[in-house]
Amino acid sequence: MALTLRAAAAAAAGPTRGLRRLFSTSFIPPMNSPAPQAREKAEPSTNLFVSGLSKRTTSEKLQEAFSQFGEVVHARVVTDRVSGYSKGFGFVRYATLEDAGKGIEGMDGKFLDGWVIFAEYARPRQPPPPLENNMSPPYSRY
DNA sequence: AGTGAGCGA
C-alpha cells in the first residue's frame, strides 16, 4: 500500500526531466548593469563596513583599533537584538573621507581579537522610511 | 549556535 503511494508520487514528480536544454530566449549575457545594491565595493564614504570580527569584539574595541588611523566618530558592532551577541560585523564612521581611506588601508586584513577582519566602504543605509503618518523615527540617525 | 559570509534600531 505505502509502496504504491510512493511509486505514484515518484511517477508524478519523475518524468519530463532532462529535455529542458532547449534554446531558452534568456541568453542575456551579464552586461554591466549598474545595480544599486551590487555586491561590489561601494563608493568611498566616511562610513566603513567591517566584517570578520570576533564574536567577542565590542564596539569599544572596534573604535579603539580604528582610531589609530583617524578620528572615529562612531563605531558599532552589530548584535542580535534578543540574544545580544555579536553578529561578527560592524560599522565605523570616520570624521573625514581621508581618515576613512586610511582606516581601510590600516585595518583591512589585519588581526583583531584573533580574527582577520575586513574593512571596506559601507553601502548607503536603508531606504528612507516613509514618514507620512508616523512621527516616531529612530533616535540615532548616523 | 559560540555553525564565519555578510551591510546595522
Automatic annotation (TrEMBL):
InterPro entries: Nucleotide-bd_a/b_plait_sf, RBD_domain_sf, RRM_dom. The keyword RNA-binding applies. Residues 46-124 form the RRM domain. GO terms for molecular function: RNA binding. Keywords: RNA-binding. GO terms for cellular component: mitochondrion. This is Glycine-rich RNA-binding protein 4 mitochondrial.
